[in-house]
Amino acid sequence: MYKWNIKEIDELYKKYKKMADSSNNIEIKRKYTEICDYLIYLLEYYFTYLEKDSVVTPYDNNVPSFRAVIKDDLKIIKNYGMYAPLFRNFNNQFDGLVINNPGNLQHIKTSPAGIVDMSNSFFQNFKGKFYDTYSEIAKKFPTHLQFRKLSNNYDSCGNTHIVRHTKMVYIDIGKNNTLQDYISHIHESSHAISALLNPEIMWDYNKYCFNEVDSLFFEMIGIDYVGTRINREDDALAIKRDTFIDYLYCAMLVCVKLDMYNTLNRDDLSNKKKVKCFYKKELDNDKVAVNNICTTYIHEIWHYVISYLTAVELYYIYMKDEEKALDLLYKIIMLKGLSKEEYLNKVRELGIIFGEHIKDYYNLIFEDKIGKSYGKKI
Ligand SMILES: [Zn+2]
What we know:
Number of domains: 2
Shape: globular
Strand order of the largest sheet: 1-3-2
Structural class: mainly alpha
Radius of gyration: 21 Å
Bound molecules: zinc ion
Distance between the termini: 29 Å
Number of helices: 17
Number of strands: 3
Strand content: under 5%
């Protein structure tokens, strides 16, 4: 049985509240207050989403306003503009490509215990820092992990909640009885591992572009692993294809947005009609795409694309030399205290050439014969 222990969170809250109240040191007070605030957030989150085992949609259906998206986008482009060429390169390599949607995943019966068992055996393949840290987290799963049913509109979902200044990690996974359930758990566990290895990682905004590298890398290997284990190689391939399509689409949206912000001036940007007109022209009047681009915050997709490009390169290194890839991943996770440019340069210095193997990866997962270069050995 996996269920967040709310009583424990409540007691911790009281403990830290007492410590915050009784301390005269401003720094310590601030630190404990921050922990208290997060524990309250966790309680609220629990009672909003996890308390009843009912079908829930993971995110609020709030459509962001046109103005809010533009304002936020400009901030991201200003701050992380040096990453923009990576999107261009990804997008350009597949310019004009039309890929059919791989279709729905087969319905299989998954159980919380089975999902955790799968992750346990998966992470055993990474003996050393990664497995040791995973084991530490796994010990707490009975009271720090929870599953919830997903509505049909969502095929993947999960959250890792890290209580800053502590080693407490709470995870919730959306489950819909497909192979994706296993992958979501591997994904979130990877975030938890990184958070224990480098505790400030989630608050290092300069490193934001790389904060999905760990999860996407383990996800890529995990898809192969789980697919083989439960004999659902076709579903595993469908997830890989779906993920690729998703991120290529995100890269395309980012490029169109970049073009739009480069072309229109400040006055034009406040004119919804002009912006929409630009998008319509660029997106061949595709209504769904125009709606997506108007309502998608660039910050929600930007880091996924960069992290994905990094993970694909690590995957190729892993195919040749597992130790080397894991060592590089560890180095990337442990990078800290750098500026946005320095993070990008450091990852390059480690030997990652963004986009170098993306076409190979595309060929690998979209080749017709399943199993030729597929069906990973672990
Ligand atoms: Zn993630």
